[in-house]
Design a protein that fits this description.
- The chain has 4 helices and 12 strands, in the order αβββαββαβββαββββ.
- The chain is of the alpha+beta class.
- It has one domain: Sandwich (protein yfey like fold).
- The strands form 2 sheets. It has an 8-stranded antiparallel β-sheet. The chain has a 4-stranded mixed β-sheet with strand order 3-2-1-8.
- The longest helix is centred in the N-terminal third of the chain and has 28 residues.
- The protein is globular and about 35 Å long.
- The protein starts with a helix and ends with a strand.
């Protein structure tokens, strides 16, 4: 009789433990896409330059808005601080990562990083340490805004008051 009780007790403890382990595994598999690593000339997480609109949406879900025109813009800016530009012929060819305050509308600051560790809020010094001197710089209409252009990486890093506020990465040419 004692063995039956032990088996019942073990069963009652095992089921919740298995549920907790299963939930933990599910959470790791469903890591938010904005936590993924961006790699210049490659893509972001499982999404590579050249993928179709449908492939991007398969990984990132339904966008907050879709803008159709000469190219399709998959806008995840309000929810994730991301936008993807997809060309019907060449696939996804641009990734934009944004921070709060960059645009006048409601947005979420992108929380991902490049594989070199550069994320929103990085300093110009950190960007230069990671990628070297930019090929050129440009200033915005406001004197405190500066963009670092890296032609070989097809990347632009825009800083406001010395802090990174947006990254735009393009497909390799």
């Amino acid at each position: 009789m004692k063995t039956g009780r032990e088996i019942l007790l073990l069963s009652l403890l095992t089921v919740p433990l298995m549920v907790l382990i299963g939930c933990g595994k599910k959470a790791a598999e469903d890591e938010p896409p904005d936590k993924l690593t961006i790699e210049p000339l490659v893509g972001i997480g499982p999404v590579s330059f050249g993928m179709s609109k449908e492939e991007v949406m398969e990984h990132f879900g339904q966008p907050d808005r879709v803008f159709e025109g000469k190219v399709t813009k998959l806008n995840y800016v309000p929810s994730r601080g991301l936008v993807f530009v997809v060309d019907a012929e060449h696939g996804m060819n641009e990734i934009g990562c944004w921070s709060e305050g960059m645009l006048p509308s409601r947005i979420t600051t992108f929380s991902g990083r490049t594989k070199e560790g550069i994320g929103i809020g990085a300093t110009q010094e950190e960007i230069v340490d990671a990628y070297g001197q930019p090929d050129r710089t440009s200033t915005g209409s406001r004197a405190l805004v500066e963009t670092l252009h890296y032609d070989k990486l097809q990347a632009k890093f825009t800083l406001n008051e010395g802090k990174l506020m947006s990254m735009i990465l393009n497909a390799p040419k």
